[in-house]
Amino acid sequence: MIKAILIFNNHGKPRMSKFYEHYTEDTEQQIIRETFHLVSKRDENVCNFLEGGLLIGGSENKLIYRHYATLYFVFCVDSSESELGILDLIQVFVETLDKCFENVCELDLIFHLDKVHNILAEMVMGGMVLETNMSEIITQVEAQGKMEKSETLTLLFICQSMGQSQASRFSSKYLKLCSEDEQSFYGFGTTCG
């Protein structure tokens, strides 16, 4: 079972974390720091598996990671998971991110964290691997994106039919979800009304 999925940069700044067991927020932060120190001090030419840190279960768990450019992708797993299978899963995750963001970089993870979590949710749920087929994952994420855009446009049309005072309270939140071209195409300015 997958216990946690962590992404952090070369300086230890967390860019994404997903825990499949309950920990307090302080403990989660300590796990991230401990994992960074364990993984970052290793040479590039050693294997990508190591014993888990004390906070995440010690020798009962493993840390399986890959280092891409400025980011570490770390999966904390129990002994029932295959190390090579998890390495492949990390590769599929990164390649999927790369396809969805057209050459993914650290800034994509910072500014589109919700989409990163959606991609991950198509692959892993409750610590169990659901899907490893990149085409299927991308299809589901694109369908979800279309549905979100449709909901946004529906809300914008509702907003347009409201009075100025009601609409201005929540319009700016939903207008951020549409590009400027879409806003002008549908006749919206910076506020509804």
TrEMBL record:
Q: Where does this chain mainly localize?
A: membrane
UniProt keywords, alphabetically:
Cytoplasmic vesicle, Golgi apparatus, Membrane, Protein transport, Transport
Q: Which GO terms describe its cellular component?
A: AP-3 adaptor complex; cytoplasmic vesicle membrane; Golgi apparatus
State the signal peptide span. Answer: none
Q: Does the keyword rRNA-binding apply?
A: no
The superkingdom of the source organism is Eukaryota
Instruction: State the family named in the UniProt similarity comment for this chain.
Output: Belongs to the adaptor complexes small subunit family.
For this entry, the protein name equals Adaptor related protein complex 3 subunit sigma 1
Q: Which organism is it from?
A: Cyprinus carpio
> Could you tell me the gene encoding this protein?
LOC109079102
